[in-house]
Amino acid sequence: MSDGGGPIALQAAEVAAGDVGPVGIAERVAELDVLRGVALFGVFLMNMIGLCSAGIMSTDAQLFALPTAALDRVVTEIGFWLFSDKANSLFAFLFGMGFYLQMQRAEARGADFARIYKRRLTVLLLFGLFHLYFIWTWDVLHLYAMAGFALLALRRVDTRTLLIGGILLTLFDWRIPQELLESAGLAEWHGFSSTYSEAAVLARQQVSAAGDYFGTVRAMASYTLLDYVLSGSLAGWFVYALGRFMLGAWVGRNGWLQHAQRHLPGFRRVMFIALPAGLLLAGFARIVEFGQRDAQLSPWDHWEIVERAVHAVSAPLLATGYVCAVVVALHTHRGRKLLAPFAYAGRMALSNYVAQSFVYALLLFGIGPGLALAGKIGSSVATLIVIVAYAAQVVLSRWWLARFRFGPLEWAWRGLTYGAWPRLRISPALS
Fold it and tell me: Which residues pair with 54 in a beta bridge?
């Protein structure tokens, strides 16, 4: 599972039975649209850097031979420092926030929130499983659906429990289940330790370069089974997501983002603490991890324990700093102008998230029109591609939303959830 995490905070929607209308402009929380768009960019970037890194579709030797190798190393470290576990933390937080908003609005209308939400999650799970096996091996839609059912079961817990439980689960290291299996000697038995070997990478490259779609699907499905399911990582990521969902729901209960103007002084205070502290701690964790890699220390060396502990704290702390910084900036003229484009991508984040999968496929795989650039480009080129591709998504999203009420996948999700297809095109009377 990649750093990408989750793709959307479920958009606040009318969930009364039979009501499939979109959220009205007056009901939308502008901060959530922008935050969702910012998180979408971070997820896109880290997925691309991760997929271009050694062990998935590229080998160390191939990447070291690139003329951009030195720059790639710098770009990778900066990317991990600023975005790794921060973008997906923000996405998961927004999912929990969106969950609370939907529940609040549904109950205000007297709707059966649990029934509708279970259907939404079931559709999301089916979307995610298809996406996982046939399009993008690091999908998180299925994970968000599974953790969403757990969040639904916790919806009546008191606010204190939601906060404390969310913090504890957020600090949980998703790698622990895998390491427990390794400690029990099960890693070699299942074979998931070999999924990152040079031979495994070259085999995936070969079948991809040959343009064999179903062969590539089988190869990536094997990778997912070994590295994600049998390794225990699925359980770790489930806990990881649920903790962040709970914190998002906790913030939703307190109404801070829904009434950001009223709470702006608090956002500023938290920003001035969380942003610099998060940057410093995340930077320290990267330096320690970098030193370990170069020194080839034992995996259970005490410095790794330090790095992982610092990272567990710094990632959600820095993500909190980003949230506060975006909220504060949106209440300034210059900040609104700078951040406004992110809202277009954020309003149709599900569609944009899945569309990003085809960008990965086009660049790194050799199927159909694919360029099969795996092992031929590093993180510096990948970063430039992400910037250009994301800018194109913003432009296309703006064009689409000027004509349609939902993104295409958001529309399909809503129709399958309610069993009735909502009107897609915007009519003059509704604009």
Answer: 58
> 157: closest CA among 239, 249, 242, 255?
249
Burial 171-185 (b: 16+ CB within 10 A, else e): ebebbebbbebbeee
Whole-number Cα distances in Å, 238 to 92, 120, 145, 180: 11, 18, 10, 16
Task: Give CA–CA dist 86/353, Å, rounded.
Answer: 17
pLDDT one-digit tens code per residue, 222-275: 999 988 988 889 999 999 999 999 999 999 999 999 999 999 999 999 999 999
- The rounded radius of gyration (Å) of the Cα atoms in the chain is 21
d(CA 170, CA 165): 8
Task: Say if residues 267 and 260 touch (Cβ distance below 8 Å).
Answer: yes
Query: Is 411 in a helix, a strand, or coil?
Result: helix
What confidence tens digit (pLDDT) does each residue in 127-181 have?
999 999 999 999 999 999 999 999 999 999 999 999 999 999 999 988 888 777 7
Select from 76, 213, 208, 30 the least CA-distant residue to 133: 213
Longest dimension (CA), the chain: 66
Alpha carbon separation from 129 to 9, 134, 141, 180, 223 (Å, rounded):
18, 8, 8, 26, 15
Alpha helices in 184-301 (DSSP H): 186-190, 198-209, 213-224, 233-254, 264-295
- Measured distance between the N- and C-terminal CA atoms of the chain, rounded to whole angstroms: 40
CB atoms within 10 A of CB 189: 11
Enter the DSSP assignment of 10: P
Q: What is the pLDDT of residue 302?
A: 72
Residues in the chain: 431
pTM for this entry: 0.89
Closest C-alpha among 326, 230, 227, 223 to residue 274: 326
| CA-to-CA separations, 284 to 80, 281, 290, 296, 312, in angstroms, rounded | 12, 5, 10, 18, 12
Around Cβ 24, how many Cβ atoms within 10 Å? 9
Enter the DSSP assignment of 228: I
Query: Which residues on neighbouring strands pair with residue 426, listed in sequence order?
Result: none
DSSP secondary structure of 146-213 = HHHHHHHHTTTS-HHHHHHHHHHHHTS-TTHHHHHHHHTTHHHHHTGGGTTSHHHHHHHHHHHHTT-H
Contact of 182 with 166, CB cutoff 8 Å: no
